[in-house]
Amino acid sequence: MLTDGVAYRVDGGNPTTTAAFVTALSAALPEQRDPAGSAKVAVTELEQPERHTPSLKYRARVAVAGIPVLAYLGYTIWVGIAHGLEVIFVILGSVPFFLGLLLLFTAYVLILEQVVLTLRGITVVGTFGFRTKDGAAWYKFTDMDGVERTHRGKNRGRHNRITYDPRDPVVASSQLAWGPVVLKASASLASGLPLLGIGSAMAFLIVG
């Protein structure tokens, strides 16, 4: 509530963020308050994360991922020509097959990025920048080249420790611990391997 009776509502999201906002706002206000409080208020739109140009590594991953897709498509066409209706099993098997591959690839990326950050990651202090409409907290940090970047992390107040890869700053983590990564990777493997097995059986063993 401002001095002239105009009310503004600011969603803090959680007690920590709200307390930090109140502290910063109280420190910025002058001791002698202006009677026309609302004239001092400026409303601005939330910033959005910067758009990253796909790196060579990302493009290479997409290219590698396309290889099994094209191979499976070619196999499906061959089965349709050589075995007729048995192609139905190949088509149905594609769902668990590719879902399993995706989960295995996810586990691989999780472990790889964790290894990279552990070996050559640089840890800096990120400052809370903004919150997007989905409730995610984005922190701003400056890399070793002086470029300001944003990282989506868990809301831990005004400041957050962020570890990033200096060769590819898009790869960053605000929780550089092996425990959560191993759990996520294990869950992906535990789900992906059975799905891959089921899809492979439907596509390659039943046919013929």
UniProtKB/TrEMBL annotation:
List residues traversing the bilayer: 62-81, 87-111
What is the superkingdom listed in this entry's lineage?
Answer: Bacteria
Q: Which UniProt keywords apply?
A: Membrane, Transmembrane, Transmembrane helix
What name has this protein been given in UniProt? DUF3592 domain-containing protein
Biological source species: Streptomyces enissocaesilis
The record lists the lineage as:
Bacteria, Bacillati, Actinomycetota, Actinomycetes, Kitasatosporales
